[in-house]
Amino acid sequence: MAKLYPGMAFTNIKNNWKTYLPYMLSCSLTIALFYIIGSLGANKGISEMWGGDMIASYMTLGQGVTAIFAVIFLFYINSFLVKRRRSEFGLYNILGMEKKHICRVIFLETVYTFLITMAAGLILGILLDKLLYLVISHMLAAKVPLGFYISVSSILQSLALFGGIFLLMFLNSMRHIYRARPVDLLKSRRAGEKEPKAKWILAVAGVICLAAGYYIAVTTDNPVAAIAMFFIAVVLVIVGTYLVFTAGSIALLKLLKKNKGYYYKTKHFVSISAMMYRMKKNAVGLANICILSTMVLVIISTTLSMYLGVNDALKQRYPAEYNITCMVQDNDYFDQGVKALRDNARSEGLTLTHEIAYRDFSFSAIYEKSKDFFVTDPSLYSNFSAMQKYNQLTTFVVVPLEDYNKSMGINETLGENEVLAYSSRQALPTDTINVFNLSLHVKKTLPDFMANGNTAAKISSGHYLVVKDLSVIEKMKTGQNKALGDKADKFGSWLEINYMADVTGNAEKQKDQILAAYHKTWDDIQAMNDAADAAKSDAPQPSSIAMAKADPGFNGSLECRTNEEASFRGVYSGLFFVGIFLGILFLMATILIMYYKQITEGYEDKQRFTILQNVGMSHHEVKQTIRSQILTVFFLPLVTAGVHIGFAFPFLYRILTLMNLFNLRLFTLCTVGCFLAFALFYGVVYWLTSRIYYGIVKK
Fold first, then answer.
1. What is the DSSP track for 342-395?
2. Is 43 left (phi over 0), alpha (psi -120 to 50) or beta?
3. Exposed site from 204, 457, 543, 661, fewest CB < 10 Å?
4. Rounded to an integer, what distance in angstroms lies between the CA atom of residue 264 and that of residue 258?
5. How far is CA 396 from the centre of its chain?
6. What is d(CA 100, CA 178) in angstroms, rounded to the nearest whole number?
7. Which segment, 3-7, 119-123, 260-264, 542-546, is predicted with the most confidence on average?
8. pLDDT tens, 218-258?
9. Based on the number of CB atoms within 10 Å of its own CB, is 342 exposed (0-12), middle (13-18) or buried (19 or more)?
10. Greatest CA span in the chain, whole angstroms?
11. Helices and strands per DSSP (H, E), number in the chain
């Protein structure tokens, strides 16, 4: 008896290899991906690379997403196996096996499956881990150390996670067996469903959810609001998709059934009738395929766009090779910093070019459309109503006309209370800017503006204003201090001066010299601050925070594009890498749901098609019926996913602008290319699964 159960478990897996093999391959691949992400996140070699710490942090995030996905996905696939074998369990029960004996066989099958998939997944993960480590090293242009790395912690995490998942799946199988009667189990494969009714209320609710999600995606202009509303829009679209597929597909089939010219044909009559009796479960599976397809397209298209557009994004954030920013009251120290940079660049054999310097004053505000006024009161941000006004959040950068003309090499003029305006990410909502008790009229909208990396780093939309002179900025500063009250010293803005310069020649070839000049200049600035601190210790201490702001020293920053490039690429490469992993997971889930859907429906339709062939239906007519049945509904998820992506496109683009990706053409090409590639792949999977379906139902 002791040898009977292991033998039965092994034989069951062997006899059901058509359903077990894809299942075990899926488990192995999921385990391998989970191990790889965990191993790369824990690999000290990556975190020590320049920019690798960001990839390591993204891997930790990706591992959490993979764990959640593994629980949901493996449970979903396991439900197909349980459903497929319910009649087999019923037969065992009728032949004399007690339910506890059947559970013992299932337990051994679960153990065998766990051991095989865990061993295969870990071996595959360990082998691919080094390869992907080499890929990351190449992406970050880092040297690859010799040796082979195996993450013991990731192995233990994999054993714990998937051991728990397999245990829960076994308990779920026990629940099915103990709750059902033997006769019910035996007849489960022949059990049909009543013809579902068209649930128009649910169909209308689904359309409303989709329309609401699409409306949010299309009308949300501000990138900050796009992030805040993204989750809401996603939930609405997911709920709407399930409702429309569940209720709307039934209504579609009923409409086709009423069309006598279409319905009373051999290939249509059988397919529509067969789908009608199983449409509830069929629709849920199709909705799952649609959601997963949309997730694959969104993840791959956005992360691919970011990875390919990293150079554009880098130049948006760091428009010049060197950037020095300092408070205007520390003008002497600013001049010393600029002089140090020029001297150090010259000593490294570099020639600075495109040098510009200008002063600016920045502040944040929320546009009140009803009052046509920009509000800067900080109390607005502390109540719930502020959450509803993210779409109007903006950052203003104010520059005096003198500095603008000098930097741009032009000669614009302004009258009293007139400004020139330039906008990024989002258009200015009004031609009259009412802020700080000032009413400024936009005389002209500028086609371009001086670069400003600090503003590009902010997540809110940016509006640049050129005002007549510094007196206007002084009025704004006074108004800001009044609005902020006792928080003015902590949160208030100060007039700053910006210096930017590029280098001649090929920056990549001069990388070492550029970095050397940057580090030498930074050391000089630190020396200035140390000297200022020493001088301050001998002088009387300031009596207020306002005076402390004017303390001697370099109160500013020094940035170098080449110095930040590695970490910048690490962010984008890490997102792309995790995106590829998650894309593979969701794509694998899509394929398997399609595969098991075809197998399950094939076995359910086998007897029906046998009867039809016995009364004269040819193999050719069977193929036509299958093709009609699958094409009628099978490609609906792909089409719907394309519609989802079309409406989400402007929404996703606004979010990408927060990552300084303004290349609309690149994002468009990536999105269209990903959809076409996925559609081709989807068609291949359809062709393969339809052949499997035909092989099951043919006589």
1. HHHHHHTT--EEEEEEEEEEEEEEEEETTTTEEE--GGGGGSGGGGGGGGGEEE
2. beta
3. 543
4. 10
5. 29
6. 9
7. 119-123
8. 887 766 667 767 778 888 888 888 888 877 667 777 777 77
9. middle
10. 108
11. 26, 10
In 177-329, the DSSP E strands lie at 322-327
Q: How far lies 270's CA from each of 562, 609, 627, 629, 658, in Å?
A: 66, 9, 11, 8, 52
Q: CA separation (Å) from 152 to 55, 330, 638?
A: 20, 54, 41
Contact between 324 and 337 (Cβ < 8 Å): yes
* CA–CA gap between residue 514 and residue 504 (Å, rounded): 11
- Collapsing DSSP to helix, strand or coil, 497 comes out as strand
According to DSSP, the β-strands at 496-503 and 322-327 are: antiparallel
* pLDDT tens per residue, range 157-173: 889 999 998 998 888 87
* Confidence at 384, pLDDT banded by 50, 70, 90: very low
Average pLDDT over residues 293-310: 87
Buried b (16+ CB within 10 A) or exposed e, 49-65: bebbebbbebbeebbee
Measuring CA to CA, which residue among 326, 245, 241 is closest to residue 280? 245
Convert the pLDDT of each residue in 476-528 to its tens digit.
888 777 777 776 666 667 788 889 999 988 888 888 899 999 999 888 888 88
CA end-to-end span of the chain? 39
What pLDDT is attached to residue 369? Answer: 67
pTM of the model: 0.71
Q: What H or E segment, with its residue span, contains residue 271? A: helix 266-276
- Beta strands 461-467 and 393-400 are parallel
